[in-house]
Amino acid sequence: MSNPYEPPQPDDANRRPDPTEPPPSPGSTPPASPPPGGAPGYGTPPPPSGTPGHQAPPPYSQPGTPPPYAGAPYGSAPYAQPSYGTAPAPQKTNGMAIASLATSVAGFVMLCGIPCPVGLVLGIVALRQVKERGEQGRGMALGGVIVGAIGTAFLVFAVIFFLFVIGVASTDTGYSSTY
């Protein structure tokens, strides 16, 4: 009985050539016959055996089956739809809509609402341009109008309140105190 932990020893008939060995010299004799089941290593396969005039089926297929699908060429989808021209270019976003939203938000958050009227006007003009030109940016323009209107309203109320406080403080009430 052989040891199960030892690698099997190849016999000479089924031995494959070692790629690290040098090739045989031209005067040496080649092996007598290939091992059963195919040609050893490299080379052409043996001619098919059988009756004359009968070809062997292609390898790895059953009789009557179509040849395997070769697939699509490299870089294309296997089930690509036909192309009817180029894809439409993405629509441009209106620059005034972007400026409207940026000015309104910056004015509302950082600059006490002073630039909000500018953002409001830019937003109104941008809405008109988006409608006429078919550009994108309607949402940004609308956001600029809304934030600009709220900031402008706060600015107006702040100015009115400030003027009221100054007016009240500067008026003479007629009350005089004498000590």
UniProtKB/TrEMBL annotation:
This is DUF4190 domain-containing protein. It comes from the Bacteria. Residues 1-10, 20-70 have a biased composition (Pro residues). InterPro entries: DUF4190 (IPR025241). The chain crosses the membrane at residues 105-127, 139-169. Keywords: Membrane, Transmembrane, Transmembrane helix. Residues 96-157 form the DUF4190 domain. Residues 1-74 are annotated as: Disordered. The keyword Cell inner membrane does not apply.
